[in-house]
Design brief:
By secondary structure, the protein is α/β, with parallel strands linked by helices. It has helices spanning about 5-25, 25-35, 55-60, 65-80, 85-90, 95-105, 115-120, 130-135, 145-150, 155-180, 210-215, 230-240, 260-265, 275-285, 300-310, 330-340, 355-370; strands at about 40, 50-55, 110-115, 200-205, 220-225, 230, 240-245, 290-295, 320-325, 345-350. The protein folds into two domains: about 95-125 and about 185-370, TPP-binding domain (Rossmann fold, 3-Layer(aba) Sandwich), CATH 3.40.50.1220; about 130-180, no CATH class. It has an eight-stranded mixed β-sheet, with helices on both faces.
């Protein structure tokens, strides 16, 4: 065999290997298409049984275009079916129009995820109340009943202030250790965020879940940890990928904003929009569409800041969105919804306790953004 024949044989062999690998990547579709019975071809010879073949493999090698058409149709139908529960929830809640507005904002690249502690809970990070109680357990000389009462009442700033006043060194060490990068396991709905959010991200969390989730996908061009910023404002205005960690970064105690005193210093008391943090939040609030994830959106400094920005009536405020568990009490739900709508924040409700719907909402958003499915309500 000549060298040219050997080279051609090698190229053919390599092409067949690559095609075979391509076929194997569609395992789920192949199993669906094959069904229960293989394709049977009888032989005219009486002493030979019928030849049995996998239907998907025959179609793949005989008519690649038809195979791809069948696979695409199956994927569309499968993707639509997996979103049935959340699309029914959207319809039942009368949320078709606002959800479509959210999808349009995603397509224009105008959505900024606002990540709360609920999004990193599946990654092994504690919620704020849980973290404060863990810290309190390490401080036996602290006023346990009084601080526990503050935590249970949702007064996390006051509880953190009491803990810092008791032992600031222990608090700093706790934040640096409990939110360390080694404790994060990549899991949960956070993994869906990079599929549709390519620009700025805001978080109240100390941990590195966002950095780890985005690590192999995009690089952040600028960041702001607490009041310390690295090229943040010019990059934000340009629409570059930026990360704003409102409470600071776990590894840098100088950036931590956890207590009432730290909040007053960072935001001003009253709020001062000349300070970096209020300035950054207002800039995002009036120019992008925030998507709140893993946030309770009860009374806090962030909502107060947005209220002041809107009350000033200096900007046309865009629509914002929040995926939230619906309060069981109808009156409480109405009151919370009214307050959020006043701030141009449209709640996308799901049943209380069924946090898997956060994943379902985000999976639907990501699939539409990547044009895996068409959403028509």
């Amino acid at each position: 065999m000549s060298d040219a024949d050997k080279q051609q044989k090698h190229l053919v062999s390599e092409a067949l290997r690559l095609l075979g690998d391509q076929y194997e990547t569609n395992k789920d579709f192949n199993e669906f298409f094959d069904g229960e019975e293989p394709l049977s071809i009888s032989s005219p010879r009486q002493d030979v049984d019928a030849y049995q073949y996998e239907r998907s493999k025959v179609l793949f090698w005989v008519d690649r275009e038809a195979y791809d058409d069948e696979r695409t149709a199956w994927e569309n139908e499968t993707n639509q079916a997996k979103h049935n529960e959340v699309t029914e929830l959207i319809r039942a809640g009368g949320l078709i129009a606002p959800f479509q507005d959210l999808l349009d904002a995603v397509e224009r690249g105008r959505v900024v995820p606002f990540i709360g502690a609920g999004m990193t809970k599946p990654m092994g990070m504690p919620l704020w109340g849980e973290a404060l109680k863990q810290l309190l357990a390490r401080l036996p000389a602290a006023d346990g009943p009084a601080i526990t009462a503050l935590i249970d009442a949702g007064q996390y700033l006051a509880a953190a202030q009491a803990l810092v006043d008791h032992d600031a060194v222990q608090v700093t060490n706790f934040v640096r250790t409990i939110y360390r990068i080694q404790k994060i396991k990549l899991a949960g709905p956070m993994l869906l965020v990079p599929r549709f959010a390519k620009g700025c991200i805001v978080t109240t969390n100390f941990d590195d879940a966002i950095e780890q989730t985005y690590r192999d996908k995009v690089e952040f061009n600028a960041y702001m940890h607490g009041t310390q910023e690295h090229n943040f404002f010019p990059r934000l205005v340009r629409g570059d990928r930026c990360l704003l960690k409102l409470h600071g970064d776990a590894d840098n105690p100088a950036t931590h904003i956890l207590t009432q005193t730290q909040y007053a210093d960072a935001y001003g008391n009253p709020l001062d929009f000349h300070k970096p943090l209020p300035k950054a939040l207002r800039q995002i609030f009036v120019s992008q569409s925030l998507l709140f994830l893993g946030c309770s959106l009860d009374q806090d400094w962030t909502l107060e800041l947005f209220e002041q920005a809107k009350r000033a009536d200096e900007y046309a405020i865009p629509n914002h969105y929040a995926i939230l568990p619906a309060p069981e009490d109808p009156q409480a739900k109405q009151q919370k919804e009214t307050r959020l709508l006043t701030l141009n924040i449209q709640p996308l409700w799901y049943p209380v306790g069924q946090h898997e719907f956060v994943d379902r909402y985000l999976q639907l958003i990501a699939d539409v953004a990547e044009r895996r499915i068409n959403y028509n309500g």
